[in-house]
From TrEMBL, chain A:
Known EC number: 1.4.1.13
Domain (FAD/NAD(P)-binding): residue spans on this chain: 152-459
Keywords: Oxidoreductase
Gene3D superfamilies xref list: Alpha-helical ferredoxin (1.10.1060.10), FAD/NAD(P)-binding domain (3.50.50.60)
Name of protein: NADPH-dependent glutamate synthase
Pfam families for the chain: Fer4_20 (PF14691), Pyr_redox_2 (PF07992)
UniProt keyword Oxidoreductase present: yes
Enzyme class label: oxidoreductase
Originating gene: gltA
Domain Dihydroprymidine dehydrogenase: 25-132
Lineage: Bacteria, Bacillati, Bacillota, Clostridia, Thermoanaerobacterales
Organism of origin: Ammonifex degensii
UniProtKB/TrEMBL annotation, chain B:
Family annotation (Gene3D superfamilies): Nucleotide-binding domain of ferredoxin-NADP reductase (FNR) module, Translation factors
Name the record gives this protein: Sulfide/dihydroorotate dehydrogenase-like FAD/NAD-binding protein
Residues that bind [2Fe-2S] cluster: C222, C225, C237
Binding note for cofactor: Binds 1 [2Fe-2S] cluster per subunit.
GO terms under biological process: pyrimidine nucleotide biosynthetic process
One Pfam family per UniProt: DHODB_Fe-S_bind
Species this chain originates from: Ammonifex degensii
Alphabetic keyword roster: 2Fe-2S, Iron, Iron-sulfur, Metal-binding
Molecular functions per Gene Ontology: 2 iron, 2 sulfur cluster binding; flavin adenine dinucleotide binding; metal ion binding; oxidoreductase activity
InterPro entries hit by this protein: Cyt_c3_hydrogenase_gsu, Dihydroorotate_DH_Fe-S-bd, FAD-bd_FR_type, FNR_nucleotide-bd, PyrK_electron_transfer, Riboflavin_synthase-like_b-brl
Length: 476, 283
């Protein structure tokens, strides 16, 4: 049968994704980007050239067969497209929303050389949401295990690294238990990333999919406190994967940091996202912001915090960042969204102290302007204080989003676990193997704060290595 | 899991639960705490573990109904379960090198002194205990503590039991009377611990205090519970909850504890009136 010649859509720009209007969305916590319709998805899928040697896959930390699933979307075989993605990616509805595609798959897309790359992330999200809309659960069936498990593995932490590692091991025939410290599984996906970027119902759906594979998730379990690593092995777990994340907030060590009204971004986002403080008093955990808010930092967490603050009804939100826009580590898309919503960026500005009123509440933040000099070790231009540039930014709330460090709870209570110089767990990049036999680690606990997809990639590689280790009993 | 197997009303608003939690019971040490949640839209609050029974697999919690969460917690009956219970969190009390200690429990803080006194007894550390309360009805754990201490002193604000006045009055008398201690351990309201710290400073007696700030996760993640200790930021949840009392900036701790006072009142007001009336919160 003759195959009709495929004519790609040669439009230079991506099919735009419908979004809530900025003036509307700053008053609600509903998702900003609304997702493609089937017609939009097919139109965008037609932009893919179906390269014989696709480069996009190399850019994906979990090697999703990108051209294959896009072709299936083009052919309107949406559920099959979803199934193709989940062959390698357990959390497509999440990745389609929060992956920095612009520095991964889409960066390598041939179409990007003349115009915009194919909207791979949006298509991934479309396939996942479409499949979920049919079955209500992402289209995955519960796996009934009639065979004897290949072994027993414990996973510490239910963030992206842990969920991915657990899924791959369950699929490979292992009995897996995830231990989560908080009362809800999902890690940073539930406490960190806000509802308007990643609806918690989407996270819940993906967590349910993991459970359907037979993975047992135990919440309220702080490993290192209630059970030690040794006790896990004594309970018959043959390997342990540690994916506890980079959860500890860094403070600036400037005067006034403990004033009432100063919070870490972790605290602020946890109150808003995990505890649903934006629905206080329906939910019991309050979150308090003043009329004006300053968020210090230039990463995605800073953008999330600023945009949450805005949605809580503040009049003015500033982002204070000590270098220029060019150096900001946040995704362009997030910066763009933040600007659209009216957040004011103060670049090349650095706080020196936080000022308090007579009752110990924040009333302002003294800042200096910075000049950028020659690049430092991180490759970014080094900021130097501009003399005489002191000024006060009048705010009642300061949110500090200058980074996080690895959670030391497991490391501190596990003898024989080698650490990195910044306090993370030292692990082999290819396998996640740590210095202690049977213990693997991956995600932010190893790399320091990074992205969801990198953590997933680490979880995936560790799952493979754990399978090998348990099968061969060889610790290399 | 987390089933309440015994409930006792110690005073109209002070309740005791013995709850099933074998894993926590096996690990918890004096000075450590748990975090709990009562319902699906509830907040996370820390409570110090007042006692534990490793064989029975139970922990004892004592709490005063001061806010929405503790009021709702107090409504739970024997046989019902606490929705979420996580722990043991924080560092255990450090008893290393101690031979003679004076322990001061103020109000509900006495509940935390109990496991410490028991542990010190087990370790052969001699302990004098001073219990302070608002009135005779609120003197807690007197009989439970008595067998484990050398001397027990009681003070009440209104003089309805023991000495009329403050725990620091007794402590001062003991110190002036030539009693020597390696350390004082004070657990109670912030103003009481602050007063103990000021007094012991004059006598050069080291003091350990137990902090109970606002917390969310309790594992070092949010930094909400931070305090200044000798000029450095510490997190009560992972670096504490016990600290060298002479280094704690109490005024800051007191101020930070007030941060959500307005919201706490709002939450109380959202309770059904039948509950609120009992706590004089119905407006």
């Amino acid at each position: 049968m003759p195959v009709p010649k495929r004519k790609p859509n040669m439009a230079r720009k991506k099919v735009p994704m419908p979004e809530q209007e900025p003036q509307v969305r700053i008053r609600n916590f509903a998702e900003v980007a609304l997702g493609y319709t089937p017609a939009q998805a097919v139109e965008e899928a037609r932009r893919c050239l179906q390269c014989k040697e696709p480069r996009c896959i190399q850019g994906c930390p979990v090697n999703v067969p990108i051209p294959d699933f896009i072709k299936l979307i083009e052919e309107e075989r949406f559920v099959e497209a979803y199934k193709k993605i989940v062959e390698t990616n357990n959390l497509p509805a999440i990745c389609g929303r929060v992956c920095p595609q612009e520095i991964q798959c889409e960066r390598y897309c041939l179409r990007g050389e003349k115009g915009e790359p194919v909207a791979i992330g949006r298509l991934e999200r479309f396939a996942a949401d479409y499949a979920a809309s049919l079955s209500g659960s992402g289209g995955r069936k519960r796996i009934r295990r009639s065979f004897k498990p290949k072994g027993k593995v414990a996973v510490v932490g239910s963030g992206p690294a842990g969920l991915t590692c657990a899924t791959d091991l369950a699929k490979a025939g292992y009995e897996v238990t995830i231990f989560e410290a908080l009362h809800t599984p999902g890690g940073v996906l539930v406490y960190g990333i806000p509802e308007f970027r990643l609806p918690k119902s989407v996270v819940q759906r993906e967590v349910d999919n993991v459970k359907k594979l037979g993975v047992d998730i135990q919440t309220n379990m702080v490993i290192g406190k209630v059970l030690s690593m040794d006790e896990l092995f004594a309970q018959g777990y043959q390997a342990v994967f540690v994916g506890t994340g980079a959860g500890l907030p860094v403070f600036m060590r400037i005067p006034g940091e403990n004033l009432n009204g100063v919070m870490s971004a972790n605290e602020f986002l946890t109150r808003v996202n995990l505890m649903k403080g934006y629905r206080f008093p329906e939910y019991d955990t309050p979150v308090k912001v003043g009329r004006r808010v300053a968020v210090v930092g230039g990463g995605n967490v800073a953008m999330d915090a600023a945009r949450c603050a805005l949605r809580l009804g503040t009049e003015k939100v500033y982002i204070i960042y000590r270098r220029s826009e060019e150096e900001m580590p946040a995704r362009r898309e997030e910066v763009h969204h933040a600007k659209e919503e009216g957040i004011e960026f103060r670049f090349c500005t650095s706080p020196v102290r936080i000022l308090g009123d007579d009752h110990g509440w924040v009333k302002g933040m003294e800042c200096v302007e910075m000049e950028l000099r020659e690049p430092d070790a991180s490759g970014r231009r080094r900021p130097v204080v501009k003399p005489g540039s002191e000024h006060v930014v009048n705010v009642e709330t300061v949110i500090i989003a200058i980074g996080t460090t690895p959670n030391p709870l497991v490391a501190r209570t596990t003898p024989g676990l080698a650490l990195t110089e910044f306090g993370g767990i030292a692990a082999d990049e290819a396998t996640g193997q740590t210095s202690r036999e049977g213990v693997f680690a991956g995600g932010d606990i190893v790399t320091g704060a990074a992205t969801v997809i990198l953590a997933m990639g680490a979880g995936k590689r560790a799952a493979k290595a754990i399978d090998e280790y348990i099968t061969t009993k060889q610790w290399r | 899991m987390n089933k309440i197997i015994k409930k006792r009303v110690l005073a109209p608003t002070i309740k005791l639960f013995e709850a099933e939690s074998p894993l926590i019971a096996k690990k918890v040490e004096p000075g450590q705490f748990v975090i709990l949640r009562v319902h699906k839209k509830g907040e996370r609050i820390p409570l110090t573990v007042a006692d534990y029974d490793r064989e029975r697999g139970t922990i004892t919690l004592v709490f005063e109904e001061v806010g929405k969460t503790t009021v709702l917690l107090g409504q739970l009956k024997e046989g019902e379960s606490i929705l979420d219970l996580v722990g043991p969190l924080g560092k255990p009390t450090d008893f290393e090198g101690l031979k003679k200690v004076v322990a001061l429990g103020g109000g509900l803080g006495t509940a935390l002194v109990l496991p410490q006194v028991k542990e010190m007894y087990k370790r052969g550390i001699r302990v004098d205990v001073i219990i302070g309360a608002r009135n005779a009805a609120l003197v807690l754990f007197e009989e439970e503590i008595r067998p484990y201490c050398a001397n027990l002193y009681i003070t009440t604000d209104d003089g309805s039991r023991g000495h009329k006045g403050l725990v620091t009055d007794i402590l001062k008398k003991l110190l002036d009377g030539g009693n020597e201690y390696d350390r004082a351990i004070a657990v109670g309201p912030l103003v009481m611990m602050k007063a103990v710290c000021e007094l012991t400073k004059d006598y050069g007696l080291p003091v350990t205090v137990s902090m109970d700030p606002i917390m969310i996760d309790g594992t070092g993640m949010c930094g909400c519970c931070r305090l200044t200790l000798g000029g450095e930021i510490k997190f009560a949840c992972v670096d504490g909850p016990e600290f060298d009392g002479h280094l704690v900036d109490f005024d800051e701790v007191i101020r930070r504890k007030e941060m959500y006072r307005k919201e706490e009142k709002m939450a109380m007001n959202s309770l059904p009136c039948s509950l609120k009336e009992r706590y004089n919160a119905c407006t």
